[in-house]
Design a protein that fits this description.
The protein is of the alpha/beta class. The chain has a single domain, classed as Rossmann fold (3-Layer(aba) Sandwich), CATH 3.40.50. Helix content is 31%, strand content 23%. The strands form two sheets. It has a six-stranded mixed β-sheet, sandwiched between helices. A four-stranded antiparallel β-sheet has the order 2-1-4-5, with helices on one face. The longest helix is centred in the last third of the chain and has 16 residues.
Length: 270
Amino acid sequence: MATAANANLPDDPNDPLAPHPRSEDAAPQPGGASGDLLIHAIDLHTYYGASHILRGVNFAVRRGETIGLMGRNGMGKSTLLKSIMGLVKPRAGAVLVMGRPMTGRPAHEIARLGVAYVPEGRGIFGNLSVAENLLMTALPGTRGQRDWTFERVLETFPRLKERLRHGGQQLSGGEQQMLTIGRALMTNPDVLILDEATEGLAPLIAREIWRICGLIRQSGISSVIVDKNWKHVTQVTDRNVILVKGEVVFEGSSAQLIGQPELLARHLGV
Protein backbone atom coordinates (compact mmCIF):
# COMPACT_ATOMS: atom_id res chain seq x y z
CA MET A 1 0.00 0.00 0.00
CA ALA A 2 1.61 3.25 -1.14
CA THR A 3 1.08 6.47 0.76
CA ALA A 4 1.40 10.13 -0.08
CA ALA A 5 3.78 10.46 2.87
CA ASN A 6 6.39 8.28 1.17
CA ALA A 7 6.30 10.34 -2.01
CA ASN A 8 7.21 13.54 -0.21
CA LEU A 9 10.17 12.18 1.76
CA PRO A 10 13.70 13.31 0.83
CA ASP A 11 15.95 10.83 -0.98
CA ASP A 12 17.41 8.29 1.42
CA PRO A 13 21.08 9.28 1.98
CA ASN A 14 23.91 6.78 2.32
CA ASP A 15 24.58 8.17 5.76
CA PRO A 16 21.21 8.47 7.56
CA LEU A 17 22.74 10.72 10.19
CA ALA A 18 23.87 13.34 7.68
CA PRO A 19 21.84 16.58 7.74
CA HIS A 20 19.21 17.02 5.07
CA PRO A 21 16.03 19.06 4.61
CA ARG A 22 13.09 18.32 6.89
CA SER A 23 10.13 16.69 5.18
CA GLU A 24 6.92 18.66 4.88
CA ASP A 25 5.22 15.55 6.22
CA ALA A 26 7.08 16.07 9.49
CA ALA A 27 5.08 19.22 10.17
CA PRO A 28 3.27 18.81 13.48
CA GLN A 29 -0.41 19.18 14.10
CA PRO A 30 -1.53 22.57 15.46
CA GLY A 31 0.02 23.42 18.78
CA GLY A 32 3.70 22.70 18.22
CA ALA A 33 6.59 24.00 16.14
CA SER A 34 8.25 21.64 13.66
CA GLY A 35 11.50 21.80 15.63
CA ASP A 36 9.65 20.33 18.61
CA LEU A 37 8.59 17.21 16.70
CA LEU A 38 11.03 14.47 17.71
CA ILE A 39 9.28 11.37 16.38
CA HIS A 40 6.63 11.24 13.67
CA ALA A 41 5.12 7.97 12.47
CA ILE A 42 3.00 8.53 9.39
CA ASP A 43 0.31 6.11 8.15
CA LEU A 44 2.19 3.02 9.37
CA HIS A 45 1.14 -0.41 8.15
CA THR A 46 3.12 -3.21 9.78
CA TYR A 47 2.68 -6.94 9.26
CA TYR A 48 3.90 -10.13 10.89
CA GLY A 49 3.76 -12.49 7.96
CA ALA A 50 0.21 -12.26 6.61
CA SER A 51 -1.13 -10.69 9.83
CA HIS A 52 -1.87 -6.98 9.38
CA ILE A 53 -1.01 -5.50 12.81
CA LEU A 54 -0.77 -1.70 12.37
CA ARG A 55 -3.41 -0.21 10.10
CA GLY A 56 -2.55 3.35 9.13
CA VAL A 57 -1.25 4.54 12.52
CA ASN A 58 -0.16 8.16 12.92
CA PHE A 59 1.81 8.91 16.06
CA ALA A 60 3.91 11.90 17.15
CA VAL A 61 6.20 12.74 20.06
CA ARG A 62 7.06 16.38 20.72
CA ARG A 63 9.83 17.81 22.81
CA GLY A 64 9.13 17.75 26.53
CA GLU A 65 5.88 15.77 26.46
CA THR A 66 5.04 12.45 28.07
CA ILE A 67 2.67 10.17 26.15
CA GLY A 68 0.75 7.16 27.37
CA LEU A 69 0.32 4.45 24.72
CA MET A 70 -2.60 2.28 25.77
CA GLY A 71 -4.68 -0.67 24.67
CA ARG A 72 -5.35 -4.26 25.59
CA ASN A 73 -2.86 -7.00 24.81
CA GLY A 74 -2.40 -7.69 21.12
CA MET A 75 -3.63 -4.31 19.92
CA GLY A 76 -0.33 -3.20 18.37
CA LYS A 77 1.40 -1.14 21.05
CA SER A 78 4.71 -3.02 21.06
CA THR A 79 4.58 -3.35 17.28
CA LEU A 80 4.28 0.43 16.96
CA LEU A 81 7.29 0.94 19.22
CA LYS A 82 9.31 -1.68 17.34
CA SER A 83 8.33 -0.08 14.02
CA ILE A 84 9.60 3.27 15.29
CA MET A 85 12.82 1.72 16.64
CA GLY A 86 13.66 -0.18 13.47
CA LEU A 87 13.16 -3.60 15.07
CA VAL A 88 10.27 -4.31 12.70
CA LYS A 89 10.06 -2.83 9.20
CA PRO A 90 6.69 -1.34 8.23
CA ARG A 91 5.32 -2.45 4.89
CA ALA A 92 4.00 1.06 4.21
CA GLY A 93 4.18 4.49 5.80
CA ALA A 94 7.11 6.45 7.18
CA VAL A 95 9.01 7.05 10.41
CA LEU A 96 10.81 10.34 10.91
CA VAL A 97 13.14 10.85 13.86
CA MET A 98 14.32 14.40 14.50
CA GLY A 99 12.93 15.21 11.05
CA ARG A 100 15.02 12.57 9.29
CA PRO A 101 13.49 9.60 7.42
CA MET A 102 14.44 6.48 9.38
CA THR A 103 11.84 3.95 8.23
CA GLY A 104 13.25 0.47 8.72
CA ARG A 105 16.72 1.75 9.68
CA PRO A 106 18.64 -0.31 12.24
CA ALA A 107 17.85 0.37 15.88
CA HIS A 108 21.37 1.57 16.68
CA GLU A 109 21.08 4.37 14.10
CA ILE A 110 17.80 5.52 15.62
CA ALA A 111 19.32 5.36 19.10
CA ARG A 112 22.17 7.61 17.90
CA LEU A 113 19.56 10.27 17.12
CA GLY A 114 18.59 10.46 20.80
CA VAL A 115 15.94 7.76 21.27
CA ALA A 116 16.39 5.30 24.16
CA TYR A 117 14.28 2.15 24.29
CA VAL A 118 13.43 0.11 27.39
CA PRO A 119 11.95 -3.08 25.91
CA GLU A 120 9.47 -5.45 27.43
CA GLY A 121 11.64 -8.11 29.02
CA ARG A 122 14.35 -5.57 29.97
CA GLY A 123 17.33 -7.14 28.16
CA ILE A 124 20.02 -6.39 30.71
CA PHE A 125 23.41 -8.12 30.57
CA GLY A 126 23.23 -10.70 33.33
CA ASN A 127 26.96 -11.48 33.23
CA LEU A 128 27.89 -7.83 33.87
CA SER A 129 27.68 -6.01 37.17
CA VAL A 130 25.20 -3.22 37.82
CA ALA A 131 28.00 -0.66 37.47
CA GLU A 132 29.17 -2.20 34.19
CA ASN A 133 25.64 -2.26 32.77
CA LEU A 134 25.35 1.46 33.47
CA LEU A 135 28.80 2.64 32.44
CA MET A 136 28.80 0.80 29.11
CA THR A 137 26.09 3.15 27.79
CA ALA A 138 27.45 6.43 29.20
CA LEU A 139 27.32 8.95 26.35
CA PRO A 140 26.66 12.64 25.84
CA GLY A 141 23.31 13.44 24.24
CA THR A 142 22.75 14.70 20.72
CA ARG A 143 23.26 18.29 21.89
CA GLY A 144 26.29 17.39 23.99
CA GLN A 145 24.28 17.28 27.19
CA ARG A 146 25.50 15.14 30.07
CA ASP A 147 22.61 15.69 32.47
CA TRP A 148 22.34 12.03 33.41
CA THR A 149 25.67 11.04 34.91
CA PHE A 150 26.53 7.84 36.74
CA GLU A 151 26.18 9.70 40.03
CA ARG A 152 22.76 11.13 39.15
CA VAL A 153 21.43 7.73 38.10
CA LEU A 154 22.53 6.24 41.42
CA GLU A 155 20.89 9.10 43.30
CA THR A 156 17.67 8.44 41.38
CA PHE A 157 17.88 4.65 41.92
CA PRO A 158 19.27 4.17 45.45
CA ARG A 159 18.61 0.42 45.25
CA LEU A 160 21.14 0.18 42.42
CA LYS A 161 23.71 2.09 44.45
CA GLU A 162 23.47 -0.64 47.09
CA ARG A 163 24.04 -3.36 44.48
CA LEU A 164 26.75 -1.96 42.23
CA ARG A 165 28.88 -5.11 42.34
CA HIS A 166 25.97 -7.51 41.90
CA GLY A 167 25.57 -9.23 38.55
CA GLY A 168 22.49 -8.38 36.53
CA GLN A 169 21.15 -11.90 37.02
CA GLN A 170 21.30 -11.45 40.80
CA LEU A 171 18.78 -8.60 40.82
CA SER A 172 15.06 -8.86 41.44
CA GLY A 173 12.66 -8.08 38.62
CA GLY A 174 12.05 -4.59 39.95
CA GLU A 175 15.76 -3.90 40.32
CA GLN A 176 16.35 -5.13 36.78
CA GLN A 177 13.72 -2.70 35.52
CA MET A 178 15.40 0.13 37.41
CA LEU A 179 18.74 -0.89 35.90
CA THR A 180 17.28 -0.93 32.39
CA ILE A 181 15.80 2.54 32.81
CA GLY A 182 19.01 3.83 34.38
CA ARG A 183 21.04 2.37 31.53
CA ALA A 184 18.81 4.15 29.01
CA LEU A 185 19.15 7.45 30.88
CA MET A 186 22.95 7.14 30.76
CA THR A 187 22.70 7.77 26.99
CA ASN A 188 21.24 11.23 27.79
CA PRO A 189 18.33 10.73 25.38
CA ASP A 190 15.85 13.23 24.01
CA VAL A 191 13.13 10.55 23.99
CA LEU A 192 12.73 7.61 26.38
CA ILE A 193 10.41 4.75 25.36
CA LEU A 194 9.25 2.35 28.08
CA ASP A 195 7.38 -0.77 26.99
CA GLU A 196 5.39 -2.33 29.88
CA ALA A 197 6.91 -0.08 32.52
CA THR A 198 5.69 -2.02 35.58
CA GLU A 199 4.65 -5.42 34.23
CA GLY A 200 5.08 -8.19 36.78
CA LEU A 201 6.35 -5.90 39.52
CA ALA A 202 5.17 -5.86 43.13
CA PRO A 203 3.01 -2.83 43.99
CA LEU A 204 5.73 -1.22 46.12
CA ILE A 205 8.30 -1.51 43.32
CA ALA A 206 5.77 -0.35 40.73
CA ARG A 207 5.14 2.75 42.82
CA GLU A 208 8.87 3.47 42.74
CA ILE A 209 8.92 3.14 38.93
CA TRP A 210 6.05 5.63 38.65
CA ARG A 211 7.96 8.04 40.90
CA ILE A 212 10.93 7.74 38.56
CA CYS A 213 8.70 8.33 35.52
CA GLY A 214 7.60 11.57 37.17
CA LEU A 215 11.21 12.61 37.74
CA ILE A 216 12.06 11.90 34.11
CA ARG A 217 9.14 14.03 33.00
CA GLN A 218 10.32 16.88 35.22
CA SER A 219 13.80 16.63 33.71
CA GLY A 220 12.40 17.58 30.30
CA ILE A 221 12.99 14.26 28.52
CA SER A 222 10.11 13.25 26.26
CA SER A 223 8.68 9.85 27.11
CA VAL A 224 6.38 7.21 25.69
CA ILE A 225 5.01 4.88 28.37
CA VAL A 226 3.19 1.60 27.81
CA ASP A 227 1.55 0.08 30.86
CA LYS A 228 -1.69 -1.69 31.70
CA ASN A 229 -2.47 0.57 34.67
CA TRP A 230 -4.11 3.54 32.94
CA LYS A 231 -4.78 5.25 36.27
CA HIS A 232 -1.08 5.54 37.01
CA VAL A 233 -0.20 6.32 33.40
CA THR A 234 -2.56 9.30 33.26
CA GLN A 235 -0.96 10.76 36.40
CA VAL A 236 2.36 11.29 34.60
CA THR A 237 1.31 11.89 30.97
CA ASP A 238 0.37 14.97 28.98
CA ARG A 239 -1.32 13.08 26.15
CA ASN A 240 -2.64 9.57 25.67
CA VAL A 241 -3.20 7.35 22.63
CA ILE A 242 -5.34 4.21 22.60
CA LEU A 243 -4.83 1.50 19.98
CA VAL A 244 -7.51 -1.03 19.10
CA LYS A 245 -6.67 -3.71 16.52
CA GLY A 246 -3.84 -1.60 15.15
CA GLU A 247 -5.81 1.62 14.78
CA VAL A 248 -5.87 4.80 16.89
CA VAL A 249 -9.32 5.15 18.48
CA PHE A 250 -8.50 7.94 20.95
CA GLU A 251 -5.94 10.69 21.31
CA GLY A 252 -6.19 13.38 23.94
CA SER A 253 -5.12 14.70 27.32
CA SER A 254 -5.31 12.74 30.54
CA ALA A 255 -8.25 14.89 31.66
CA GLN A 256 -10.10 14.16 28.41
CA LEU A 257 -9.50 10.44 28.77
CA ILE A 258 -10.52 10.24 32.42
CA GLY A 259 -13.66 12.22 31.53
CA GLN A 260 -14.84 9.40 29.24
CA PRO A 261 -15.53 6.41 31.52
CA GLU A 262 -17.46 4.56 28.80
CA LEU A 263 -14.46 4.73 26.48
CA LEU A 264 -12.17 3.54 29.27
CA ALA A 265 -14.42 0.60 30.03
CA ARG A 266 -14.80 -0.32 26.37
CA HIS A 267 -11.13 -0.21 25.39
CA LEU A 268 -9.13 -0.60 28.62
CA GLY A 269 -11.44 -2.41 31.03
CA VAL A 270 -10.68 -6.00 31.94
